Amino acid sequence: QDHIRQMQTDILEKLIPHDSSGNVENLGDLNVTSNLGKMTEYYFMQGGKMLRPTVSLLMASACNSSTNRRILKESQASCQKSPQSSNLSVCKNQYKIGMISEMIHTASLVHDDVIDEANTRRGSASVNAVWGNKMSVLVGDFILARTTQILCSTKNPQVISVMAGIIEDLVLGEFMQMATPPKNTTPNQKMTAYIEKTHRKTASLFANSCRSVAILADETNASLQNLAYDYGRNLGIAFQLVDDLLDIIATENEMGKPTSIDLKLGLATAPVLFATQQFPELAELVARKFKNSGDIEKATEIVANSNGIKMTRKLIAQYSEAAEKAASSLPNRNEATERLIELAISQSDRKF
Ligand code: FPP
Ligand code: MG
Ligand code: MG
After folding, report:
1. Comparing 75 with 222, which gets the higher pLDDT?
2. CB–CB of 242/69 below 8 Å?
3. Of 265, 266, 272, whose CA–CA distance to 248 is shortest?
4. How crowded is residue 125: how many other Cβ atoms within 10 Å of its Cβ?
5. Does position 331 have pLDDT exceeding 60, yes or no?
6. If you measure from the C-alpha of residue 330 to the centroid of ligand 3, how many angstroms do you get, rounded to a whole number?
7. What angle do helix axes 92-115 and 133-152 make, rounded to 10 degrees?
8. Is Transit peptide among this UniProt entry's keywords (predicted)?
């Protein structure tokens, strides 16, 4: 928690450094005339969950515990010990991975809100609703540019490559989501494509951030790196499945944001895909992306009467359990490992 609080301040300072008179460095007049600074910090100031850095730092600490040998050798300056729990320590570069994970996530949300034509995010006006699409796209790019600077400062080519892969996956995931599958695609193929899309869109960020902190813990330990990756991938898929489920079953009041967004965007997620296997007439609505009047209500009703919700919960449980298994297999379990396990288990009954 201490690391995470400090990280929120550090991210803002890396994004838009201020000089001693409070002016935004390097941007000068450009900031005054274009609101670049305000736009850049906008989503970071709204108090996101900081889930990605939390997972990255916990995984860093869990991996470091299995490789004490290396951590002990590191200079005090490159390691940060959490004041309250002396067992949990992360290195400077691992801390940077936490920052980078949140920054890539936020940049992707800025672009996502432009693509989805969203008016709100976290209960406030979206960045594009306030400043328009054109500047929002550029601000997303600006956040990515500053993120790249931090990534390069790790001076670890393997980590730079793994983290750059996340950005590629985000773009490919978004493309997969927009693609219309060929007419003869089977239900099984649709489900496989949905999971692949979910990996790229959401899980890759968790998986590759976890892999990166594991590389930084022990460059030579491929099995540790793979366990960290597996944990992140399975947690990430479970997390997105829960999001997709809540979008269909939760009320706007519970979520604090509009629901059925996916149907409105023409997207068929796990509950709909399962329901289509049971009620093939739903396929027609999916194919026309719920465009006809009454389609969204009809699809919601069919899903509610189907086993789609139950099957999605079962799938969430499978991915949570796979994440739990990966974390449990990490050598030298410590407090952070236990927290990772709890986080995986808690996905099954997450309500928001
Ligand atoms: C939120 O999903 C969006 C994502 C998880 C990824 C979006 C990725 C891009 C727009 C590609 C470009 C990425 C970068 C880094 C420049 P959602 O729309 O399902 O969820 P929401 O309810 O949070 O909007
Ligand atoms: Mg969106
Ligand atoms: Mg989207």
Report:
1. 222
2. no
3. 272
4. 13
5. yes
6. 33
7. 160
8. no
Helix (H) or strand (E) holding 224: helix 222-249
| Ligand 1 centroid from CA 42, angstroms | 16
From 217, 235, 229, 215, select the one nearest 332 (Cα to Cα). 217
Is the model's pTM score more than 0.90? yes
CA of 15 to the centre of ligand 1 (A): 20
**Tell me: the pLDDT tens digits for 258-300?**
678 899 999 999 999 999 999 999 999 999 999 999 999 999 9
Measured between alpha carbons, how far is 300 from 253 in angstroms, rounded to an integer? 17
- The C-alpha atoms of residue 147 and residue 206 are separated, in whole angstroms, by 16
pLDDT at 68: 59
Q: In angstroms, what is the span from residue 118 Cα to ligand 2's centroid?
A: 7
**Number of residues that make up the chain:** 352
Measure CA 53 to chain center.
Answer: 10
Question: Which residues line ion ligand 2, judged by CB < 5 Å?
Answer: 112, 116
CA distance 322 to 348: 12
Task: Report ipTM (2 d.p.).
Answer: 0.98
Q: Is the pLDDT of residue 185 over 60?
A: yes
Paired tokens of 233 = 């991938």
d(CA 222, CA 231): 14
Ligand 1 first shell, C-beta below 6 A: 104, 107-108, 111-112, 115-116, 118, 140, 144, 167, 170-171, 174, 201-202, 261
Q: How far is CA 256 from the centre of its chain?
A: 19
With CA atoms as reference, report the closest residue to 257 among 81, 160, 125. 125
Q: Dihedral angle at the C-alpha atoms of 7, 12, 18, 20, nearest 10 degrees?
A: -30
